[in-house]
């Protein structure tokens, strides 16, 4: 990985941690070991060639794993095309959301994914989610609440060798 590649990973990691996400940089083999240790009720990843998209009912899911399309270094945000309703639901109702980011898909700023956004929203039903850390809101009596509109915890796996 070039020094520019390392610096963009470092910036993304710094920003994601600032919004209370957990970030781990690893190789694909390490990722497979981590995944084996979890009982994901929802799993969607092209790079691992696996999808286990059980219907998510009102009981929700404790842990979900999704592969994202991009990550934005300047904000620590992951970007996911999720016109698939089950993927969209999983990212909102999982108590702990795990995401896989290919290091090569980390961009410097949101302007770098304009073509991706245009392509994936030109048809009706196109939906792109921007996720920056665990869900948080302070609209209820001005008290900070984590997990009201999304996951309580966000763990990001940056896979460096893909």
What is the gist of this entry?
It comes from Halosquirtibacter laminarini. The chain is of the alpha/beta class and 162 residues long. The protein has helices at 3-18, 28-36, 85-93, 114-121, and strands at residues 22-26, 42-45, 50-53, 61-67, 70-72, 77-81, 94-102, 106-107, 128-131, 136-137, 145-146, 153-159.
Q: What does the model show?
A:
The protein is of the alpha/beta class and 162 residues long. The protein has a single domain (3-159), classed as Rossmann fold, CATH 3.40.50.10420. It has helices at 3-18, 28-36, 85-93, 114-121, and strands at residues 22-26, 42-45, 50-53, 61-67, 70-72, 77-81, 94-102, 106-107, 128-131, 136-137, 145-146, 153-159. The strands form three sheets. It has a six-stranded mixed sheet with strand order 1-12-7-4-2-3. The protein has a four-stranded mixed sheet with strand order 8-5-6-9. The model has no long low-confidence stretch (mean pLDDT 82).
Give a quick set of tags describing it.
162 residues, 26% helix, single chain, 12 strands, alpha/beta, 4 helices, six-stranded mixed beta sheet, Rossmann fold, four-stranded mixed beta sheet
Structural domain count: 1
Q: Provide the gyration radius in Å.
A: 15 Å
CATH class: Alpha Beta
Structural shape: globular
Number of helices: 4
> How does the helix and strand content classify structurally?
alpha/beta
* Corresponding CATH architecture: 3-Layer(aba) Sandwich
Report mean pLDDT, rounded to a whole number. Answer: 82
Low-confidence stretches: none
Helical fraction: 25-40%
Q: Tell me the CATH superfamily.
A: NagB/RpiA/CoA transferase-like
SSE string? HEHEEEEEHEEHEEEE
The major beta sheet can be summarized as: 6 strands, mixed
Can you count the beta strands? 12
Please state how the strands of the largest beta sheet are arranged side by side: 1-12-7-4-2-3
